[in-house]
Design brief:
Blueprint lengths: L16 E3 L9 E2 H19 L9 H20 L8 H17 L18 H23 L14 H50 L3 H44 L2
Antiparallel strand pairs: 1-2
């Protein structure tokens, strides 16, 4: 019985082909690509509904203006007046991550569709992190030239300490895109694995029979409900953290702090 109800918590992250073979084919249409298109479509619909520019804005327009104002304010606070030119990118990654995270929690399996959290793929979070890091490097060298390297030298540091601090600062700077991508990837994959594991406890508990089996199933179900409530909060927090850290890294490139 246990073998029949065994659940693989990693199966939900498996990339499968929806058109074409994955072997040696970089153009195969996968479930990951499908859900990314769905996320982009939802973001487009969200923005389209809020661009009516009505004199008396409706709720949808107020919501869209609230999100754009939030991102604009974050960049203005962390970067300054020049932060407005980076609003399109920071807003894009914030909305994409938020929608992708929340979409992965939706119970589409009830209607036969298996949801796929694209931000649980390190390649997806890694590409967004590399683009953000590329913007930081391009901004830094465009504005400051080779003076951009002064970012690795704290002001007032004695020469002897510079020999130790500069390599540490350089390594810390180069690790930024990796840590930026890894933080989001780990947060999403850990929560989904936890829900899947306790979901298997629910199934196996009821299948075990007796008194303890159903009791464990009920406790596991209550725990899942709590984890899912926490996951909704984590979805928003991770989108905010990714956007915030991107704005802070841009601030380093613009203002050389």
């Amino acid at each position: 019985m246990a073998a029949e109800t065994k659940i693989d918590p990693m199966h939900q992250f498996q990339i499968t082909s929806l058109g074409g073979h994955l072997d040696h084919n970089p153009f195969a249409f996968t479930n990951s690509a499908l859900w990314m298109l769905i996320v982009l479509g939802l973001v487009w619909v969200f923005m389209l509904g809020g661009m009516k520019r009505q004199l008396v804005p409706g709720r949808w327009q107020v919501m869209v203006e609230g999100v754009t104002g939030f991102v604009t304010s974050m960049l203005a606070t962390n970067v300054g007046p020049e932060g407005r030119k980076y609003v399109p990118w920071v807003f894009t990654i914030f909305m994409f991550i938020l929608f992708a995270n929340l979409l992965g929690l939706m119970p589409f399996a009830l209607v036969g569709a298996q949801p796929f959290t694209v931000t649980s793929q390190f390649t997806v979070t890694g590409v967004m992190a590399i683009i953000s890091f590329g913007i930081v490097l391009a901004t830094g060298f465009w504005r400051h030239g080779f003076k951009f390297f002064s970012l690795f030298v704290p002001h007032g540091t004695p020469f002897i300490l510079k020999l130790l601090i500069v390599p540490i600062e350089f390594v810390s700077f180069m690790v930024r895109p990796f840590s930026l991508a890894l933080r989001l990837f780990v947060a999403m994959i850990a929560g989904h694995i936890l829900v899947e594991v306790f979901g298997s406890f629910v199934v196996q508990g009821f299948g075990a029979g007796g008194v303890m089996g159903p009791a464990i199933s009920i406790l596991s179900f209550i725990f899942i409900a709590g984890v899912l409530a926490l996951e909704v909060l984590v979805c928003a927090i991770q989108a905010y953290v990714f956007a915030l850290l991107t704005s802070l890294y841009i601030n380093d490139a613009v203002n050389l702090h």
